[in-house]
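Amino Acid Chain and Its Fold in Token Form
===========================================
Scope: a single protein chain, as residues and as a discrete description of its fold.
Amino acid sequence: labelled as such and written in the usual single-letter residue code.
Position: the record begins directly beneath this header, with no further notes in between.
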Amino acid sequence: MSTSRPSLQQLEMRGNFIQRHIGSNPQQVQEMLAELGLGKLDDLIEQAIPDNILNSEPLKLTGTISERAVIKYLRKMRNRNKVFTSLIGMGYYDTIMPAVIKRNVLENPGWYTAYTPYQAEVSQGRLEALLNFQQMICDLTGMELANASLLDEATAAAEAMTMARRLSKSPSNRVFIDQNCHPQTIAVMQTRARPFGFDVVVGDPYQQDLERQKFFTFLLQYPGCDGEVHDLSDIVRIAHQQSALVTVAADLLSLVILKSPGSFGADIVVGNSQRFGVPMGYGGPHAAFFATKDEYKRSTPGRIIGVSKDCHGQYALRMALQTREQHIRRDKATSNICTSQVLLAVIAGFYAIYHGPQGLALIAGRVHRYSQILATGLQSMGYTILSRQFFDTFVIHTPGRAKRIANKAQEAEINLRIIDADHLGISLDETSNRDLIRSVWRIFSGPAGDQPDINALDKTIAECLPQPLLRQDAILQHPVFERYHSETEMMRYMRKLARKDIALDRSMIPLGSCTMKLNAATEMQALSYHEFNGLHPFAPLHQTLGYQQLIEELEDMLCDLTGFDAFSFQPNAGSQGEYTGLLTIRKYHQTNGQEQRNICLIPASAHGTNPASAVMAGLKVVVLDCDDNGNVSVEDLRNKVAEHHDTLAALMITYPSTHGVFEEAFREICDIVHQHGGQVYLDGANFNALLGLSRPGKIGADVAHLNLHKTFSIPHGGGGPGVGPIGVGQHLAPYLPEHPVVKGVNPHKTEHGTVGTVSAAPWGSASILTISWAYIAMMGAHGLKQATLNAILNANYIAQRLAPHYPVLYTGKNNRVAHECIIDCRAFKQSCNITVEDIAKRLIDYGFHAPTVSFPVAETLMIEPTESEDKGEIDRFCEALIAIRQEIRDIESGKADPDNNVLHNAPHSHRLLLEEWQMPYPRVQAFFPGNNQDDDKYWPPVGRIDNVYGDRHLQCTCPPLSDYQ
């Protein structure tokens, strides 16, 4: 029997990346299509998607590039970056990530593919790692409370400013910023202050007569950008006399030997944990820290990890004060930050654990001693050192020669900080050594100049820091910082924590609106390339040509996919993208003489960061009604735009909708807003349902942010990193963000100016842009379209399978959903007192992370399978939910106890195996439901956590070691 030979094209397609990324094989796709009564995948376009939003022109993207070709291309790209020794400082320093952390965390999908720890029972490992981070920050800053990280130092300082305004009893509307703060921090503060109407004063707090002026908050840098370390006591005293709050932006490594900001009476301490083992990465991602007094805990932005107990009375961790999660508070929110930098905070915490207090003291002491030796040597060569009391940074007076010396340094592959024509700055770090010191001396003296003797200087130099500014108290005394200093113990500790969690390496994470798709290993490889992760964000542009190529090519790709004309990569989270996009719209109206346009229309169904972002951008929120199908009410829209015709600034809309539906009236909605002078902001959280099928910029949107950590495969990292770039039409491009240090970040800038600076680094979290570039390159136009259609297929298949058991709450055209579906669990509360939380916890016993709980509708589950899951895994998940529905029926019928049942008691921890079994249902039903976990059972480390207890007994630092046993 003869068989037909496959064509060359078919042979080339087999085994390519598209088939590796999309979970289901062609046979499984056909089986799911048959279940839906469809013949081919493209039938979904006609069935589910409105005709008037589809692409009218083909994409310009190149064809698929193989994984091997991508690696080869990125290798050439990285070689265009020149990684010099950067002594620029300004908040960024070279560091050494211990190899055991690199291998077991950064390169371990058990850590980087996990989701935010909303389901605490399956997140105990990373919650413990984050609690360690909080303990480390509290110890070093001298504060009572720390959160589990923010986005970067500059935005953390801006969060502190708005928090101070809420807490301060001062009637003043003025902010004082130390002129010795890092310039990017000052710029972000000025941008954030503008919409709130705060008056920002930048000056020298040690020379200015502050007692005669009134401010509601002060920001001080410690040590200063020029390296100077000041006693903060007098300024803190003056501030508190005015009822003002003091924020100190501190360098974390310096706090190992310097007196803590808390000892001076600071109210808030912020900074960057980057130099604790996290590469500079041309700007990010890095975990900012935010510490404050215990009395301010309910006003603190971001997430706080707290100690609680489970239903068995055992020690357990959770996100504390969860009502502070800002998206819940909508337009009453104090911040739009719903993203932290978990993976990077975890790395920084492990760095402190691995080195311990003694190891950190050695690192900090070495950096400080080298800095004094280098400065003293330069002084002996005739140079004036302007910094008197410094940790690792000092300023050199070089009259008229700064640029000449800096150029000479670059010839030796060393970057110095050019302050102006007469001054240079030098900052040393963990990687600095004797050879570097000698190289710097050579640069300043010339090849024939005599070199000072390092050993002689080491014996004779006097400590430049006065005793009252040196730390006297002990740090990191909790046993966790003393126990894991050998690589063997460290490796086992990290594995112990990772196995407590459910990440994508164990099972699907079917979270609605969160898109937990495959983060392919090939996409992740570039993160470990030194030429990408070793660059200082303020390195001269001629040394960063590989990054410039990467950013330009990725911008071209995204413009093609979205239909926009320009992108800014500066926003380093989706929430930051929303804020930046709305600022851009505000600036556009102001430039056109329409300052009064300040109304932002937001559907009632919107994610809570939308109204929070609008308020932060200086807009007033007007809520739009939704109809019974979850769509924006066009009638209410017409009424609201007519009412606010002269003041309408923008409409924020998510598409597909937050309810997981392609609204038929999207283009009509955009036209109505434009007719009344407004702009359309598209929340791109669900862009993965449009990718390759529709371009928002061509169907009515003026600006949109994209979640690269969702649609474009950057991993969530347990709750960060993320990237939220914004795409805009040509009319908005001139107003995109710029940067005070690196020029040319916005090439479209005109004389009208921009929105300013929104993040610390010029291109945000630049190092992880390599992931999205690789994803797009390997998928190509065809692959991206296939991914979108498979995601929509998987969601509709789940809706079809679950519909006989759970009502599907919202559907669109032909009763189809988009890339996610919502199942309604509200009736169970009435029928048998089973809540959606009970279902979520019971899913843990089946080995699954729960879908999104009670969003956007209370007592519902929002399910998004993504294209990366195959039919087998999807069926396993559906069968778990169907089995749980039967367990609910057993309670409804009286077959199961109404109070003591598998749902109320879920999840079932292994601790129950150690006790006499007293449940009215068999042990096998509790631990092995579904008969599909026998060979790889996930054992939840704790039972259901008592949230109320955790809030009433708030503890946000490490408990005694005995509690871990």
